[in-house]
Amino acid sequence: MTGGDEPDSLFGGRLRLFQPARGAHRAGTDAVLLAHLFDPPAGAALCDVGAGTGVVGLAYARRTGARVTLVEREPEMAELVRRNAVLNGVAGAAVVEADVLAPAAARLAAGLVPDSADLVVTNPPFLGTDHRPSPNALRAAAHSLPEGGLAAWIRTCTWLLRPGGRLGLIHRADALPDCLAALAGRFGDVAIRPVHARPGRPAIRILVQGVKGSRAGTSLLPPLILQADDGDPTPESATIHRGLNWD
């Protein structure tokens, strides 16, 4: 079975997580930031697309009481999601093994339901076909999309959302044009928050959210700085990473 014998602790121990062995894709800061993008009301239907080990969706379930569906293509990772749901007491979590890029008929057959989610959160694979893939199959699958894959990924997220539902995603900062192109015509009220490792440095990530079917414009939010110049976490970063806003 995939995963070590001892789970990792995230959010100051508020979430415990079985993860793949070293060398495969493991949850990190990107997932932590995405897990704090929204504050949905208890009972909101939230879908974590490309769930990996389930950290984002399970964090929302634990932190806000959202009803979560976790979508993961790789059977080994889906099994880890199930283990992690049990480990964290999220008994109502639905784990769906489905390929995000598959045709709608295949997604329906896998158990996904269109127009059903109040929120969709996603951390799409960041890399295209112009890089050397990892020799670890799970890591390669988690990091790579084919040509046009981001647009197809966003189309599936749109398909899952109800009208007026909200999408949240994290991506590389230099992927902003591609993200905006994929959202165009589907989402409005788009808000972009750049994420910087330290003050005065270029952004390394973008947190993007939008409303399905909205015609409202785009806004640029204040940046999120992860570390001060001395390397210590900023107060906001420490609150997010340590789960200090879960209580």
TrEMBL record:
<dbReference type="GO" id="GO:0032259">
    <property type="term" value="P:methylation"/>
</dbReference>
<protein>
    <submittedName>
        <fullName>tRNA1(Val) (Adenine(37)-N6)-methyltransferase</fullName>
        <ecNumber>2.1.1.223</ecNumber>
    </submittedName>
</protein>
<keyword id="KW-0489">Methyltransferase</keyword>
<dbReference type="InterPro" id="IPR007848">
    <property type="entry name" value="Small_mtfrase_dom"/>
</dbReference>
<feature type="region of interest" description="Disordered">
    <location>
        <begin position="226"/>
        <end position="247"/>
    </location>
</feature>
<dbReference type="InterPro" id="IPR029063">
    <property type="entry name" value="SAM-dependent_MTases_sf"/>
</dbReference>
<keyword id="KW-0808">Transferase</keyword>
<keyword id="KW-0949">S-adenosyl-L-methionine</keyword>
<dbReference type="GO" id="GO:0003676">
    <property type="term" value="F:nucleic acid binding"/>
</dbReference>
<dbReference type="InterPro" id="IPR002052">
    <property type="entry name" value="DNA_methylase_N6_adenine_CS"/>
</dbReference>
<dbReference type="GO" id="GO:0008757">
    <property type="term" value="F:S-adenosylmethionine-dependent methyltransferase activity"/>
</dbReference>
<dbReference type="InterPro" id="IPR050210">
    <property type="entry name" value="tRNA_Adenine-N(6)_MTase"/>
</dbReference>
<dbReference type="GO" id="GO:0008170">
    <property type="term" value="F:N-methyltransferase activity"/>
</dbReference>
<dbReference type="Pfam" id="PF05175">
    <property type="entry name" value="MTS"/>
</dbReference>
<feature type="domain" description="Methyltransferase small">
    <location>
        <begin position="32"/>
        <end position="149"/>
    </location>
</feature>
